[in-house]
User: Which sequence fits this backbone?
């Protein structure tokens, strides 16, 4: 039981490049989330998926897209990376909306 | 709007001393409240949660938190800290996002350092 896994762990991009962050969970959870963490700002919700087949915007969705590929997998795509997207990205999952969330180890992304 | 405030950005305590981390929330209904811990370079791990019932909740690693509705607070406590408790601590509240979904709102975090 691996919990929530994320790939890659680290990534450096040049401005304008694209990439996809992958997330998978093996806990049969319905809901999955993408957050970004910046110093002094806590975690901010980018996108979430309440159930398979649905996705919705969070607090800071601009510049990102997501895909809920199946119940296990939820990917985050940066189409044209900007330096403002330098951050640590966390994926999380939960059984129901107010249940505790289980977090992946994070992806540290630097955009130069 | 729902919000969570952690007024202390950084706290340093001596090993063996008691600890209290403050958290205040703003939410109209009965809140779902959480404390998470993040060790350096790691994801977040749940310490404890409050949904209903007894207002004093026990968590992992010897932590506890008390829900005080009148003060809109959910402070985290530990009677005697260990060097391994050095980490960042996040308070969070469950909130209704829209008619069909809910989410968790996180505070900005309190970094805990331990003095030997």
Assistant:
């Amino acid at each position: 039981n691996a919990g929530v896994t994320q790939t890659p762990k680290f990534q450096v991009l040049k401005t304008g490049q694209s990439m996809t962050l992958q997330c998978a969970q093996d806990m049969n959870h319905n809901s999955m989330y993408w957050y970004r963490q910046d110093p002094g700002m806590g975690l901010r919700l980018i996108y979430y998926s309440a159930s398979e087949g649905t996705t919705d915007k969070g607090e800071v969705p601009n510049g990102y897209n997501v895909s809920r590929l199946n119940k296990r997998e939820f990917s985050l795509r940066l189409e044209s990376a900007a330096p403002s997207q330098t951050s640590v990205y966390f994926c999380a999952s939960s059984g129901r909306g107010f249940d505790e969330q289980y977090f992946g180890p994070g992806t540290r992304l630097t955009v130069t | 709007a729902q919000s969570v405030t952690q007024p202390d950005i950084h706290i340093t305590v001596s090993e063996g001393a008691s600890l209290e981390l403050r958290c205040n929330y703003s939410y109209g209904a009965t809140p779902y409240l959480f404390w998470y811990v993040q060790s350096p370079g790691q994801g977040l791990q749940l310490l404890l949660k409050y949904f209903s019932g007894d207002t004093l909740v026990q968590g992992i690693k010897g932590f506890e938190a008390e829900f005080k509705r009148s003060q809109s607070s959910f402070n985290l406590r530990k009677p005697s800290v260990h060097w391994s408790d050095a980490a960042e601590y996040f308070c969070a509240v469950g909130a209704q996002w829209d008619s069909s979904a809910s989410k968790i709102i996180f505070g900005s975090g309190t970094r805990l350092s331990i003095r030997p």
Q: What stands out?
A: The first strand of chain A starts at residue 4 and ends at 7.
